[in-house]
Amino acid sequence: MRFVNPIPFVRDINQSKEFYEKRLGLKILEDFGKFVLFETGFAIHDGTSLEQTIWRQEFIANEPYERRNLLLYFEHEDVEVAFENIAPHVDLIHPIERQAWGQRVFRFYDPDGHAIEVGEPQSLGPLGNSHKA
After folding, report:
1. Beta bridge partners of 74
2. What is the pLDDT of residues 45-88, one digit of tens each?
3. Which of 50, 42, 3 is nearest to 20 (CA)?
């Protein structure tokens, strides 16, 4: 077994697709209408259709799916450039800050209230694997 990817539920697939494509610069690999897969392996799915698929019912709600229990982590080679391009268009949690483990990151919310972290790449260990501590 191997982990493939997280698939956050989104309220407005077109708004979220535009957000991840235009604001975060992710490239769309496949667009199936209610499900969008990006080249990085990250994917989003229309929440109401996924609710029907999984639980056989729709939960009538207009609020975002936010839960404060999920952090979507991305890396960018130049965290300052990423911040300048993204920050004016999002609900910022905090600007670039150095974390206890030395990495500089900033955090914000996507259109559905999912928390997103963008950090500078960091190499850990002899293999140089990029990894969030």
Report:
1. 118
2. 998 888 887 778 877 777 777 777 788 999 999 999 999 999 99
3. 42
Which tens digit of pLDDT belongs to each residue from 21-54? 999 999 999 999 999 999 988 999 998 888 887 7
**Nearest-angstrom CA–CA distance, 122 and 108:** 20
Q: Which fold has domain 9-130?
A: 2,3-Dihydroxybiphenyl 1,2-Dioxygenase; domain 1 (3.10.180)
Residue type, 131: H
State whether residue 106 is helix, strand or coil.
strand
Is the Cβ–Cβ distance between 83 and 96 less than 8 Å? yes
For 68, the token pair is 């404060």
Helix ranges (H only) for the chain are: 13-18, 47-55, 79-86
Paired tokens of 38: 């990006």
Do 45 and 7 touch, CB atoms closer than 8 A? yes
